[in-house]
Amino acid sequence: MTQPRTGRPPRADAVRNRLKVLEAAEAVFDARGTTASTEEVARAAGVGIGTVFRHFPTKETLLEAVYVSRLRKLAEEAGALASADDPGVAFFAFFTRVVGHAATKNALSAALTEAGVDVRDAAAETGQGLKQALATLLSRAQEAGAVRGDVGLPEVMTLLVGASQAAERADVEVRDRALNVVFDGLRAHR
Amino acid sequence: MTQPRTGRPPRADAVRNRLKVLEAAEAVFDARGTTASTEEVARAAGVGIGTVFRHFPTKETLLEAVYVSRLRKLAEEAGALASADDPGVAFFAFFTRVVGHAATKNALSAALTEAGVDVRDAAAETGQGLKQALATLLSRAQEAGAVRGDVGLPEVMTLLVGASQAAERADVEVRDRALNVVFDGLRAHR
């Protein structure tokens, strides 16, 4: 329903509020899991519950927005790393970053799937960008001799999925040691 | 309820029938997924549906029995490999075997979780045996210099979980190439 507007259009305010809610939601879901309530998000954002619902009519739309925002940030980071000085460092840094984000990402994705939202659909476009950025990082690292030449993007994606899934169940030290094993395997044989 | 027995006790028959149903269930769930019906299992086993229900009163008890049987077989294989001539070959063969089984095992585990059965409970004992067998395989492979000495059982378990999860989504060639990356990482640095 359209509300009667008074004074100047609240466009900038609305955009600012949406972002505020989104950022609060990211922090709250990170810290307290995806079962955290919309009320908690409103409180963390310092807005009324009405403002949350105006931008995100359901918990699912909020979860989805957080999920897509996460993917977009990762894609942006990958894009930035694609022009880094050391392609090997850039590739492994990004791999580590994705795995570090995995626990939250998987929880969000599971919550969405449970709510009946098709995650692939919601995130397909952003995911595509991420995949392309990863392809660039990989081929640059291979050209620089930092990653062996005989692995392709599908293998790297598979390793990334596996590492992300496993990261959820392991403590940080174990995760990092397991990741180093994978990285040693990915390094070029000298 | 106890049925009146006539003639010799049907103990051996019952054991045989239970095994027949269990093996048929494994084959059917493998081929057609865990949504396959109990009727299909009965048909594959060549027994009446009543026989299936006598041994496995619900679909969940059947799924659970298949799951535990899978784990037990893997634990037996690990036990057998623990005295193999080449500890390196034995370790990597077992890792590959677990990952190869993963798709079915994960599907079974997911179906059970969805049905509200606590998989950890159901399989805890067998899982413990498997873990111990893996520890033996690992330390023998490390002593033989086939696996680097600086990885512990938690890392190997984490890599195994990751590889198993990833294997579900990748086609066989990609899975094998990704697995080889992990194996290269696990090999002793020479």
TrEMBL record, chains A, B:
DNA-binding region extent: 37-56
InterPro entries: Homeodomain-like_sf, HTH-type_TetR-like_transc_reg, HTH_TetR, Tet_transcr_reg_TetR-rel_C_sf, TetR_SbtR-like_C
Domain HTH tetR-type: 15-74
Cross-referenced Gene3D superfamilies: Tetracycline Repressor, domain 2 (1.10.357.10)
This protein's UniProt keywords: DNA-binding, Transcription, Transcription regulation
Entries under Pfam families matching the protein: TetR_C_43 (PF21597), TetR_N (PF00440)
First and last residue of the signal peptide: none
UniProt-recorded name of the protein: TetR/AcrR family transcriptional regulator
Organism of derivation: Actinoallomurus acaciae
